[in-house]
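Proteins fold reproducibly. Look at a sample protein:
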Amino acid sequence: MADPLSDTLSLLDARCELSTGLCAGERWGVRVGRYEGLKFNVVLQGSAWLMPEGAAAVPLAAGDCFVLGGGAPFVLTSAPDVPPRDAAEVFAGAPEGGSVRIGSGKDFSVAGGRMVLAPASAGLLVGALPALIHLPASSTAAQTARWLLSLFVHELQAGGPGSRTQATHAMHMIFVELMRMQLASPGGVPAGWLSALADERIGRVLEALHGEPLRRWTLPELAAIARLSRSGFALRFRKVVGRSPLDYVLTLRMHIAARDLRQQRKPVAAISQALGYSSESAFGSAFKRVFGCAPRTYAPRRPGTPA
């Protein structure tokens, strides 16, 4: 059976990296500017305040985990009234996987990582999550995430054969665990494919679509999988996912095409044919509708390629 969550992470070329840790003491504060992707952190020691821009401050305690995905600046501080230092200054020259110290460094420490996504596709995942996910230390998800983070750090520090691959898998598992927690929370995610996974009827449809993304699906077939009338299914799908069923199918196929373009697996003509388009121009129009550019323009934008 298809796993839409894992499939989507694969389509987005999600890559995980260890962030520089922070150890702080006395009165301190750090302001992080706009960022890309998803940031994950776990509080190893002490307490602090997380202050996302435009949102209420959140108290953090040892063992808490949090994920930030909106890209908006935020402040991490010992107290809301402390003037924060800019993160670019605090973390300047710090090695990946290392840590920086503010003050005595004995009162608070935090470690974590981030998930980097293909820029043109990042919205598919980021838009499906709230800007902040906060997991108290007592939650099962937080306990699992801390264990996985320790594995992640160990593998990166070990540096042996396969360590980088193991570390990436561990961070992927952290994000999957956090997303599972959100799915289990009523109203925990906005409309989108992630929230749809928690819907019994629509979730079955997504499994079918991700299992056979190139099949010529019809509305009656999808409605039958959901065990709803065609009108009832179309209405429910749009309400839960935020778009029509056939628009979702188009978007899924174009993300498959984008992945193949980024990885240079196939030429545009071959991708167009594999997706069932009668001409490259028809495929190009569909691709531009989703990504805002032609396939041949998008192809050089794969990660790691100079502009």
Observations:
- The radius of gyration is 21 Å.
- The CA atoms of residues 192 and 241 lie 4 Å apart.
